[in-house]
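Worked example 3. Consider a protein that binds iron/sulfur cluster.
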Amino acid sequence: MGTDNEVSREASSESVSLTPAQRETLELIRLPSDQRITHDPALRPQLHLELEAATEDLVDLIDKPLWISKRQLQAVNSCEALYEAQQLEPFEWRIPMTRGQIFHKCVELSIHLFPARTAPELVDEALSSIINRGDGLADFLSSLSDIERAEIRSDVSSLLQTFFDTFPPLKKAWRPTTELPRKAILHKGKIVLQGRFDLTIGQPDESTAGRVLVELKTGRAVPHHLDDLRFYALLETLVVGVPPALLASFYVDAGRVQVEHVDESLLQSAVKRTAHGIERLLHLRLKKSRPEVRPSASCRWCPISAECAPGRAWLEDANGEGAW
Ligand code: SF4
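Given these inputs, the predicted complex is written out as structure tokens:
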């Protein structure tokens, strides 16, 4: 098994054969040992208590557990009316959504398959693996025409090649994991916080942070990506007891990474946002308050925009159709 020193040695010996983009990414996502924070082991129970204390007044009123992921938190922190509308809409796969799913599967296979495959080979392996699962995505992919599947294959293959050209090759000694699941249970299971990390590298050493959480983004950068990763840092701390060392959003199209260091003030801001989100989700579930309407760019694809006056006004303004 590799130690942190082995990871550093391996990284520096390989850096000579890296592209400039890979080298830049590696330098940004690798935190030297002397900059890693050693945390108080009491942090985990303390954060757990803070989250439970913020929601104890309402939790006894719900009969079914409330499951909360980054998606629900983002939705309730933006427009609550949109969140409620989405809850009523049946989920449907669409072609652009499949790109990210297949890309993530390719990255997972690229770590575990030997000998190494080319990008188009990995896309084919990923497609077969997903179609063999027999789930909703498999049914959707099977229902597409040969041309549609070929276009998806081509898109993901190009994206994957950009990833290989710009992200440092993942070495076993770095202990990479993909789709790492985490669940934090509050109020004896009445509230469950959950997440699945796209990619992690490294691991903690006792109470010293060492893991880097990387979200692989196949679309454009939006501000809530930072909040999503802070929620994941909180989740990791509630489960493992040690926060991650770094949070990274890697924008695959651009081959660029945005990094944030994790400290206790970041975790406290994640606790506040999460506690507020849980409180609002409980209020909405219990119908104790009406959903707040907050127009934003989300109005462009909101399913109820035709019936929402503030949303329509926002769209008119944004499209330059507003009155003087
Ligand atoms: S149109 Fe905009 S403001 Fe109205 S519900 Fe949808 S997202 Fe919210």
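Take a moment to read the result before moving on. The chain has a mean pLDDT of 91. The chain has twelve helices and six strands.
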